[in-house]
Amino acid sequence: MVWFWVLVLFTANLKFGLAHIHGGEQPLAKINILQTTVALHESASISAEPVLLGLKGEDTEWITVNFVNPKPSLDDWVGVFSPAKFDPSACPPVNERKKQLPYICSAPIKYKYANESSSSYAKTGTASLRFQLINQRADFSFALFSGGLSDMTVTWTSGYDIDEAVPFVEWGRKGDLQVRSPAGTLTFKQNSMCGSPASTVGWRDPGFIHTSFLKDLWPNFVYMYRIGHLLYNGSVVWGKTYSFKSSPYPGQNSLQRVVIFGDMGKAERDGSNEYSDYQPGSLNTTDQLIRDLDNIDIVFHIGDLTYSNGYISQWDQFTAQVEPIASTVPYMIASGNHERDWPNSGSFYDTPDSGGECGVPAETMFYYPAENKAKFWYSTDYGLFHFCIADSEHDWREGSEQYGFIEQCLASVDRHRQPWLIFSAHRVLGYSSNDWYSQEGAYEEPMGRDGLQKLWQKYKVDIAFYGHVHNYERSCPIYQNQCVNKEKNHYSGTVNRTIHVVVGGAGSHLSKFSQLIPYWSIYRDYDFGFVKLTAFNQSSLLFEYKKSRDGKVYDSFTISRDYKDVLACVHDGCEPTTLAS
């Protein structure tokens, strides 16, 4: 259960602190929160209801906020803060010489314009707003601001440290005896952030992240599970009950369905924070996947997950948005520039795109099977598929540590058991006719495919997927800028050259194409969407590009082949032979 507090109305004159980050502007970055000043109005009021949430164990509830302002203006907005109490004692001084403390040093979590629900607000000064809140481990408060918009987002949940409760998962096959598995507990602190806003106004305590490993699963069975916290008085706090179907055995010859996309971000269902302008396709993609969840077995979100850009509260908002998906099927991720990049932090690109997070929230909040979580590359199997997930925010060039991993990952697959070999990275290391790539002349991330294309050809990668560019594009099967044939809808026989797919249009603002369509580009779409792969068996694969707004297929092709076609010798993809008998 979570209480919230309602602040006495105050107005605050906020100066805009604009911060442009490649890939879009995080709405909360519009606020220079440290410059807030206070001007209380005795006759102003603000209230919210209900005042106590989670009485029935709900994770999400709607709140109605009513307010009155005797001096209304079109610039008024209501912000939500969590934790609820403003404590300037923890704030760094705004003026170091004068040791002047700001009134607020934590960005709000959600906001709406005061006149959103009432066009007459500027005349009457009376209105109400509805906010949807998620459990974010703390109380929250509402405040009415005037004289300059600051992006805000509200959120709450509850959490327990290991000295308060023991976390665990109770699980088992549907209808069978349930067992309990312990969970580990992690968190991260403000001093783990590499810079502002993550280390200053964007900081919010993330709570405690618990991970439990459910081992020795039987393939293809439905399992039930629920999380629990064993309190030291002997009682247990339970979460919801979920279910999932365990993965097929590697090489199992059965129907398997994979969804892949990048750059989805998050949005607010209550319309707050102007997220319709920042990641306008995010909810459409999320909702489309939820509607089709019975026909999805595993999801890959290949970088630029939340676009939190240093506003840590947004990670809870994002995980709440994808919970219906991630609680039911495996939700695998890759690292993007908005998760990792920060100057002088070890990222390959010396840009501020992560807002000071430098990978810490993504590495802590999600599990992925990397040997070193700070090096976001890994391999994973799902039935007939073998995936090699690269980290484009660390050096991938020939001779690097990651290049060695990529070759080892591609070389290790048994193509008889797992015929479908997939490569993925966030940035476009293959081919894209995005306008800024075309201006550079290479149609790729600089240095992208220089050394990697030898590996794709040698090990006969079927499809390579990328995000970063916010649109959809599919290439012909290509190697060294040469298409192998003119076929567009069906490929069969010998595996020769890799199809490159940009699928970064899952939610964030769209990226323009070059006016010139390259010869290798088979299909381009300036819209929001995702890709679905369906392996019917070891010899037949269906590729579909679907738009998020209607879930219909707008581009597709099929691949059919036998094991001998994978073994066949092709240019730069032949095993050594000898004349000896």
UniProtKB/TrEMBL annotation:
- InterPro entries, alphabetized: Calcineurin-like_PHP, Fn3_PAP, Metallo-depent_PP-like, MPP_PAP, PAPs_C, Purple_acid_Pase-like_N
Could you confirm whether the keyword Zinc appears in this record?
yes
* Catalytic activity from the UniProt record: a phosphate monoester + H2O = an alcohol + phosphate
Q: Which cofactor does it need?
A: Zn(2+); Fe cation
**Annotated EC:** 3.1.3.2
Question: Where would I find the Purple acid phosphatase C-terminal domain in this sequence?
Answer: 498-556
Domain called Calcineurin-like phosphoesterase: residue spans: 257-472
Asked if the Swiss-Prot or TrEMBL record annotates the protein with the keyword RNA-binding, the reply is no
User: Which EC class heads this enzyme's classification?
Assistant: hydrolase
Query: What keywords are annotated for this sequence in UniProt?
Result: Glycoprotein, Hydrolase, Iron, Signal, Zinc
Recorded GO molecular functions are: acid phosphatase activity; metal ion binding
What family is this? Belongs to the metallophosphoesterase superfamily. Purple acid phosphatase family.
The entry describes its oligomerization and partners as:
Homodimer.
Q: What is this protein called?
A: Purple acid phosphatase
